[in-house]
Design goal:
It is a single chain. The chain is of the alpha/beta class. The protein has one domain: Rossmann fold (3-Layer(aba) Sandwich), CATH 3.40.50. It has helices at about 40-50, 75-80, 85-90, 95-110, 130-135, 160-165, 185-195, 225-240, and strands at about 1-10, 15-20, 30-35, 55-60, 120-125, 140-150, 170-180, 200-210. Strands 1-2-4-3-5-6-7-8 form an eight-stranded mixed sheet, sandwiched between helices. β1 (about 1-10) and β2 (about 15-20) form a beta hairpin. α4 packs across α5 (about 130-135). The longest helix is centred in the last third of the chain and has 18 residues, at about 225-240. The radius of gyration is 16 Å and the shape is globular.
C-alpha cells in the first residue's frame, strides 16, 4: 500500500488529506471518505486502509481545516457531548463541504494512481449528508454513495439528503442504527418513505439492537457483527458500481 498526507488547495485554504491506495494495478477507483464529528484520527485512517486494500484510491480529508484543527485529542473523542466537537461540527455546511469535494476531485484527477472514471463516497455520522449531496452534485462521476448512521438525513432545508437523493444517479445505501438519538426511528422511516416515493435507487437498512457509532472499533458502541456487515455491504456497493 502507498500512503501519503497532502495539503489539497481549496477556495478557503488547504485541507490536510490522508490518501491511501494499492501500490500496483492502478489506476484505482476513487472513494471519498468523509469523517465523523470527532475528526481525523488513526481509527479513521485504518478504515481508509481497509477500503484501499480492496483496490481503491481512498481520500480522507480533514473537514475542520478552516478552524485550524487537524486531529482531536483522546479526551475529545471520548466524550460525545464535548463542546468543541459540536462547535466544529456545526461550523460545517453542505455547501462548504461540496466546495471541498470539488477540490478533492480536481486533485485526484491529476494523480495517475486514481481513476478518472466512476467514483464512490462514504460519510459517517455528520457526514452521511455530505456523501449523499456529493452524489447529487456530481451525478456523472459518483456512482455509489453510502451514509453510515448519518445525521440530518431529513430536514426542512433544500439540500436535505432526502431531497438531494433523487438528483443523484448513484446507487445509495443508508445504514441506520436502531438505537440512535441523532437519527431516531421516525426519521429513518421518513427517509425510507421519501426515497421510495421518488423511486430513488437506494436502500435504507436498519441495523437492529446496535447504537450510533457501531462501526468504529475504538468506540464503546462498537458492535463487531454489525461493523463487519457494514463492511460487507459497503464493499459490495462499490464492487457493483465502480469495478
Amino acid at each position: 500500500m502507498i500512503e501519503q498526507t497532502v495539503e489539497i488547495p481549496t477556495r478557503d485554504g488547504a485541507t490536510t488529506t490522508f490518501i491511501v491506495h494499492p501500490e500496483r494495478g492502478g489506476p484505482h477507483p476513487l472513494i471519498l471518505f468523509y469523517m465523523d464529528a470527532p475528526a481525523i484520527r488513526e481509527e479513521l485512517r485504518d478504515m481508509a486502509r481497509r477500503l484501499a486494500s480492496c483496490g481503491y484510491y481512498v481520500m480522507l480529508p480533514n473537514l475542520y481545516y478552516r478552524a485550524g484543527v487537524l486531529e482531536m485529542t483522546a479526551e475529545d473523542r471520548a466524550d460525545p457531548e464535548h463542546k468543541r466537537v459540536f462547535e466544529l461540527m456545526n461550523s460545517l455546511t453542505i455547501p462548504l463541504v461540496m466546495a471541498d469535494t470539488d477540490a478533492l476531485l480536481v486533485y485526484a484527477d491529476k494523480d495517475p494512481a486514481a481513476s478518472k472514471g466512476k467514483a464512490g463516497c462514504v460519510g459517517y455520522c455528520m457526514s452521511g449528508q455530505f456523501a449523499i449531496n456529493a452524489a447529487a452534485r456530481h451525478p456523472g462521476r459518483i456512482a455509489a454513495a453510502a451514509s453510515i448512521y448519518g445525521t440530518f438525513l431529513v430536514t426542512d432545508k433544500g439540500d436535505s439528503p432526502h431531497i438531494a437523493a433523487p438528483k443523484a444517479s448513484a446507487e445509495l445505501y443508508f445504514a441506520c442504527a436502531e438505537i440512535d438519538r441523532w437519527t431516531p426511528l421516525e426519521v429513518v422511516q421518513a427517509l425510507d418513505v421519501a426515497l421510495k416515493a421518488d423511486h430513488v435507487n437506494a436502500e435504507v437498512e436498519l441495523y437492529p439492537a446496535v447504537q450510533h457509532g457501531f462501526a468504529f472499533p475504538q468506540r464503546a458502541a462498537y458492535d463487531k457483527p454489525a461493523a463487519e456487515r457494514h463492511w460487507e455491504r459497503l464493499i459490495a456497493l462499490y464492487q457493483r458500481n465502480l469495478d
